[in-house]
Specification:
single chain, 970 residues, mainly beta, AsmA, AsmA-related, AsmA family protein
Length: 970
Amino acid sequence: MAALLRLLAWFAAFLAALAVLAAWLVPPRLDWSAYRAELERIASAELGREFRIDGPFALALLPEPRLVARGVAIGEAGDTVTGTAEELRLTLALGRLLIGEVAVSELTLVAPRLAIRDVPIPLWAASSRPPPFLAGTRVSLERGEITVGTVRLAHVSGRLSAQGPFGPYTLVGRYSLGSMPVEAQLTLGRAGLDGAATLEAAFFGRGARVAVAGVVLHGGFVFSGKVEAEGADLSQLLPAPALPFRAEARLAVEGGAGSADQLTLQLGPSRLSGAASFATRPEPRVDIALAGVRFPLDPWVAPASGALAATPFPIGLDLSLEAAEIGGGTLRSLRAALLIADGQVAVNEAAAVLPGGAGVALAGAVIAAERGPRFEGLVELEAPDLRGLLAWLSLDRVWAGVEGFRSLSLSSRLSAEPGLLQIEQATARLDGVPISGGVVIRPPAAAGSVAEIGAGLRVARLELDRVLGGKGLGEALAALPPIDANLRLEADEVSAFGVVAREVTLDATLARGQVAVRRLAAGDLAGGVLTLSGSGEAGARSRISDFELDFSGTDASRLASLVPASNLIAAAAPVWQGGFTIRAAARAAGEQVAITGFAELLDARLEVAGLADTDFGRVTGRVALRHPGAPRLLAALGIAGTEAWLGQGSLAIVAEGTAAQRTVTVGRAEVVAGDLRAGLSGELGLEPGGGRFRLAVEAERLPLPPPVWEGRRPIDLAPLAGWSGTFAIRAAEMPVGTTAGLAAVAAEGELAGGTLRLASLTGRLRGGTIAGSASLSAAGELAVDVVLADVVIDRPQLELPFDLAGGSVSLAASLSGQGQSPAGWFASLRGDLRITVADGVLVGFDLAAAAEALAAPLPEAEALARIRRALAGGATAIEQATLVLRAEAGIAAITGLTFRSPYGHGSGTGEIDLRAGAIGLALAITPVGGGETLPEIGLRASGPVAAPRRVVETAAVARHLAERARARRP
């Protein structure tokens, strides 16, 4: 019996081993393809979706029955769920399998690729007609990928299980949303009689948690509940700064759409409120509206670029902020309506009030570009306080004046990306001036590099004085920050330093401190056409390397506008007729620049040639000015009437000198103008408010204009204010007017403190000598001291009824006056004058004729008539005469007048009113003749100096004639 039992045991063990071996080895070798349709029916019934198995089958009974099918297709076209899987694993119940029934205890899809068109799947399918597998069957996914609309969930692994055919259901798994790993847990409770079930879900990723709790209703997916989200670092989830966050909202979902209202969002210290909505049809999309009182934007600038690649589905954002802090300033009334989708951010609307009260509005899109996010769209800017806006942008304006850049309105296309800003098709008004064109700005790319600016602009009017604030162009360029620039400018009108140019075009570049003016042209500058090109260096070492200038026109009279401060040129301009041409060029010559140029105007030609340092700090060269008629050129310059004293002839000025540090030094200059022949040397230095000079003149012949004794035109000495210097003149001949004038003249003087002084003057005058000094102050005070000795005259000097027509004259005078013209000086004249004459001729009476009439045996009536005629005019030869005058307040009193003649002698008193041009003179004349003593004759003259009334007093003469007649009677 024992042996039988042992045999049965061994047999049972053998059968068991054989069964195990068969279960292990046989099923994989069986052809299950014959059961393909049955297995597809079972899988379709288990999952509630159409299944198709295209690959091979395998069955393993150990360690548990498992059927594996490869090449699985799920669903049909138009289904809500479609896809494929590498393989389908069905775990079967062994006991049921042994009695011929197929019962699935677990269904696993390996590497499925599923596309879900409608989510969530309507719950009525689970609540009223649950799939068979939900009755205790577990469904698992391994290494899956699920696409819902445009949202892709990668690396999906999870398990769905149910406690019964009607729930509750539990889903636990993990997946990747973009680059973020997410763990999810969802529990759906058992539906009640009304179809309502509880739903709780929690999602965890990168330290953040999202929790949803609420109630789900059958008849479609209807959910109502609450959602919460929180985390310690928002930057781990979104392109955002590293801020803690917390959000709460009331959530309502129906079908494929939902909304979250009563939304509160805490981002660090800032709080926002608003609402959100989402939809899954036709494509998933989320819309968020947020509003806040104050929000810091600076932390969000750098992370914002990541928004282009971060969103798996479109996100609409509507943001409203009362105040937003950025760049040290505050934006007010900020509103932005954005749509983030398809790798770009559509800016439907963005508007804000910038610092300085500038309003800006944007519309366009932010797209991914090679350098980073790129904005393309439209911009409108209205900046009534542009200087406040520039200060917020940290744009230094030291090169601009306070009157420039006050306001700006702009409308243009705008492109902006890291390292590039483009303003295109712009229309603007800067300080009320219309501007159009475009600007390209490239900020410094790295340390040590500079910003690059390109601009093509058209300006209606450009006022450089206002823009530069009184600075020179070179000073403004030196004040600019280091930049590289390419500028094309067209301006209808440009004004600078009182000069206006029209139809101006400029094409210039600035690169690494090198300035290149490819072309500067003005269609109308002072009646001429200007073209200029050149290059040089800007900055602290500003210098010019080369240039070419061409300036020509047909109306030279308008050139006066180029020198508005010159009264001489402005007065002469109306008589300038004809065209003009100015050409100049400069070329590098070693360490210097060679300059050549010429100008032709009014038959005059000016030629310039020389060398300059590269910074034009020092220029050495030669200047030549030539004209065929000197008086004609001076008349064109406003100095008329020179021919009478300067003479006919050409003009030629050739000078060699040096200009450096605002100082011009003339080594030698030869001047020929009419009869003038002179050589000049000296120095001229310009200083703030004036300057200094030193002048030396060596002249062979130096003609001077005749003095204008009665001139009433004011002599303005104001231009001499701030000037000082010395002068020295040596002249072999110095004609004055049409007279022979002086010879061997030596004069020295100075200008200091607004007073012009002739310290000394010596020379020869008509066989005699002259010496003197004089001074004229800015206030018009004139002082003259002069001494003449033995000057011979041979004709009347004053062309007056009483004059000196010949003789040897000596004079000593010390006079002064106050006024702004010669007439004013005479009207206030004061001082002393003494004149002595030897062997001369007095004009005014004929003493010889009077003596002859008295000595001749004539009837009394005829003798008296002859005497009156003799004292009514004529001339008297004198041996000696003396005249002493004392002037005060323009009235010269004759304090001493005596003369001696071969025909008698005389004396006189009186005064001359220089203010009124009147004379009062009383002469006592005693003729001599024959052997008798002749009586005294009185002569009185009064009235205008040019035509005084004469009264001859002949009472003594009548008595003498009567007594002589009685004595001769028998």
